[in-house]
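Running co-folding for cobalt (II) ion.
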Amino acid sequence: MKKFQGVYIKNEREIACLAEANRIVANILDAVGDIIAPGLETMRIEELTLDICVKHKVKPAFQGYFGYPYAVCCSVNEQVVHGFPSARRLVEGDIVSVDVGVVHEGFVGDAARTWPVGEVRDEARKLLRITEESLYVGIDKARPGNDVYDIGAAVQQFVESAGFNVVRRFVGHGIGARMHEKPEVPNFRPSFRGITLQPGMVIAIEPMVTEGTYEVDILEDKWTAVTRDGRLAAHFEHSVAITHGGPRILSISDRGQRPHN
Ligand code: CO
């Protein structure tokens, strides 16, 4: 595969495979969204995802990745990312982030959304809306000729003007035959230049936004990232191809793209 500044440039066939992997991921997220409700055990999200993977003959991308034990990440409230599905039941007022990855014909799809569980307080609703909108603000910068860090700069500016913060500890990434490829796609502006985006690059943009501090801690399970102050965090992710005409979101479901919050 061709590279530019160390980043793989995908051809049409490879982009088509990535689009199919990501369409399946987005369909899984639609199905997950349909069952989110007070009383749901988060392990049901894992089971639903595994069922759909079998049906579509795709492999979960996360299971076994650096030893990660599940097909999905379910992160509730102050959990930022990489929460384990479990016997925990969602309760009214929670927010839950679900991150899904699959491998289809050797290519990886990766996307995430956060949902309110029943009625949530106004600040939580605003956090979901701003985080989702910040993803689209970032995607709009995913154009040939832009620096990859223009994405994070725009996300950070948007999020901070709304009074929230962006997590620094985790970043988005290039995606292709591997889940994590170059370049890193931070949700903030680093102090140096990044690579220049080119048609054929595919990146996962994934703002993680907090109500309070952006500092996170990792729990004893070695995976679950939580906000240091225990306040809420939300996470939205799309896989996006850079094309001559601008960003092309690959993780679009058969229901089409629409705001979820
Ligand atoms: Co990702």
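Result summary
Residues 12-35 form the longest helix (24 residues).
Residues 110, 173, 204, 206, 237 surround cobalt (II) ion (CB under 6 Å).
Job closed.
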